[in-house]
Amino acid sequence: MKKQHLLLCFLVIFTANLSHAQEKTESSSDSQKESNGVFVAAKKIKDSLYYLTYRTNNVVVFLGRDYTILIDGFDAKAAPQALNAAGRLSLNPVRFLVNTHHHKDHTGGNEYYSNSGVTVMCHRQTYSNIWNDANAQELEKIKDLKQRFIAQQKGQAKESAEFNAKIEKLQKGGLEQDLSYPAFLFGDEFSMNFVNESIEVKHMRAAHTSGDVVMYFKNNNVLATGDLFFNGKYPYIDEDMGGNIDNYIAALDTLAKMCNNDTVIVPGHGPLASKSDLESYKRMLEYTQKGVQMDYLLGKSLEEVLANKAITANFDAQGYGNGYVKTQDYVSMLYRAAEKRYPRKK
Question: Whose C-alpha in 84, 118, 130, 164 is 20 to 30 A from the C-alpha of 25?
Answer without folding.
Answer: 118
